[in-house]
Design brief:
This protein is α/β, with parallel strands linked by helices and about 325 residues long. The chain is about 45% helix and about 15% strand. The chain contains twelve helices and eleven strands. The chain has a six-stranded parallel sheet with strand order 8-7-9-10-6-11. A three-stranded antiparallel sheet has the order 1-3-2. Helix 8 crosses helix 9 and helix 10 packs across helix 11. The chain is globular and about 65 Å long. GO terms for molecular function: ATP binding. InterPro entries: P-loop_NTPase (IPR027417), PhoH (IPR003714), PhoH2-like (IPR051451).
Length: about 325
């Protein structure tokens, strides 16, 4: 039987209180929803009520967030969600380390940092390996961080250009009816890439670098026959590559280059019966030196908390459906 307890946290000043509870107490609501506790701020104190173990986690989260505020870091809903998730996963001890390094400053001068333990592993893998695979659901920051690392590498002079690509596979929509050539047809599907670029270095600077060929954003078909030296190369939506396309892409790697391959194997849009090159690569390349695989889960989602819940719900439904199909096939076989 769980023991209900109450702990009291005392704010040091009004500024700390305002930053910690958020607008309309929204930060407190995120902690409550994530850890099943009740938080109530009144005067210079806040009470934390709930199961003993949950209260301990909530108290630890509050202290970690307070530490960021003391270091003049303005916390956001993403920071709160990350702290709660890391507390649930037992990795909260690493939380402050996430803020010890700024990967880059964005277009508005704000520091860009990793938001959770999974992202930290991802960034470390990119630095250590020649080819990094980031595999996991939407909202885990794979694409954004890949672009951040590419721009940071370009600014340091480690590479001469950035190349970003994705397979021209339709996701429930028809490319054929869109105007223009293949690149123009695929451009709308690359919107997350453009958004990330614009957010980090600004739309005008992005366009200038594209006009000079320093940044190239193109369909995967444009990579065939090339050797990409001194480049930072990102393949997005890699779950929609075929085995042949994946092999073609990976063998474009040249000297002085890095590759990142991102994808979500739960969102494959290939024709029925086609094997995903990303799934095959996981098995074929798992023991190859200088290649690293980082697997994200719904717990690494850094968007609104409900996104993680949506991912979990779909995964549970798909698992249930697969089990049902397996049972039906077994029954059909035994009846025959």
């Amino acid at each position: 039987m769980s023991i209900q307890i109450q702990q009291i946290f005392t704010f040091e000043n009004a500024e700390q209180q305002a930053k910690l509870i958020g607008v309309n107490d929204n930060f407190l609501r995120l902690i409550e929803e994530g850890l099943a506790v009740k938080l109530h701020a009144r005067g210079d104190q806040m009470t934390i009520n709930g199961d003993e173990d949950k209260v301990a986690l909530a108290n630890a989260v509050v202290h970690e967030l307070t530490s960021l505020i003391k270091h003049q870091i303005n916390i956001s809903p993403t920071d709160v969600v990350s702290a709660v998730t890391m507390a649930q996963r037992g990795t909260l001890d690493y939380f402050s380390d996430l803020y010890s390094e700024t990967l880059i400053k964005d277009n508005k001068g704000r520091a860009v940092r990793v938001k959770n333990f999974g992202q930290r592993q991802y960034v470390q893998a990119i630095r250590k390996s020649d080819i990094t695979f980031g595999i996991g659901p939407a909202g885990t920051g794979k694409t954004y961080l890949a672009v951040v690392m590419a721009i940071a590498s370009l600014k340091r002079g480690e590479v001469e250009r950035i190349i970003i690509t994705r397979p021209a596979v339709e996701a429930g929509e028809s490319l054929g009816f869109l105007p223009g050539d293949l690149k123009e047809k695929v451009d709308p599907y690359l919107r997350p890439i453009y958004d990330a670029m614009n957010g980090i270095i600004g739309a005008e600077h992005t366009q200038r670098l594209m006009d000079r060929g320093v940044i190239e954003i193109a369909p995967l078909a444009y990579m065939r026959g090339r050797t990409l030296d001194d480049a930072f190369i990102i393949l997005d939506e890699a779950q929609n590559t075929t085995n042949q396309q994946m092999k073609m892409f990976l063998t474009r790697l040249g000297f002085g280059s890095k590759m990142i391959v991102n994808g979500d194997i739960s969102q494959i849009d290939l024709p029925r019966g086609a094997q995903s090159g990303l799934i095959s690569a996981q098995h074929i390349l798992k023991d190859v030196n200088r290649i690293m695989f980082i697997n994200f889960s719904s717990a690494d989602v850094v968007r609104h908390p409900v996104v993680g819940l949506i991912v979990n719900a779909y995964e549970a439904a798909e698992t249930k459906l697969a089990a049902l199909k397996k049972e039906q096939n077994a029954n059909g076989f035994s009846n025959n």
